[in-house]
Amino acid sequence: MIIETFITSPFEQNTRVVACKDTSRAVCIDPGDSAEKIAAYINENNFDLQAITLTHAHLDHIGGVSGLSEFFPNAEIILHKNDEDLYYGLPEQPLFMGIPRHQLKALGLEYEVPPLLTRHWQHGEIYQVGNLNFKILHCPGHSLGHIVLAEERLRKVFSGDCLFAGSIGRTDLPGGDYEQLMNSIREQILPLGDDVTVYSGHGENTTVGREKISNPFLTGAYQMSPERNG
Ligand SMILES: [Fe+2]
Description:
The protein is of the alpha/beta class and 230 residues long. The protein contains eight helices and 14 strands. The strands form three sheets. Strands 1-2-3-4-5-6 form a six-stranded mixed sheet, with helices on one face. α1 packs parallel to α3 (65-71). It is globular and about 45 Å long. Bound molecules: fe (ii) ion (FE2). Fe (ii) ion (FE2) binds next to loops.
């Protein structure tokens, strides 16, 4: 597996191009921005981009979908059904994050409606990229339709904004739910195994085992108060 990370958008999101080294088949996970740079990397390496694979539809993960799909019009665009409204509502997303409309242009957060999705993720499906096999796990809590992509043989999970090194995804945006996120992490991600490397949507890589013993949301050091979670 070849993994290249691009830090994109004002939110410093980790966009990744993941390729099968035997077949050069590739996907781009969460193109937040910088479509030209990502496309140049894919073309320089002669990768065959088969899909834009989205963990969820927050703007910092999908802002580059339009641009990238112009370079690769045959690539599938795949998202879980429960994040579809967020996806097609991309131009409005900065407003519900509290950013006033008149500031969007200056902040680089003016978006067009992204291209049509070609398919929805199904929980439990195995998604093949050459010789790579990603198990798709529905992990709601940060958003309604969040999924993670787990390559169990190669012991890697692309966890989007579910789990970070030392933290978890925010749950205060529409569709967010703290208890649901914790359940997703406990029931879908932790059972993958301590040795699994976690490639998060923001920040450094980590492992499931390291998070189990050091992440304050998993060790019990941090308890969400009922008031704070509504
Ligand atoms: Fe997010």
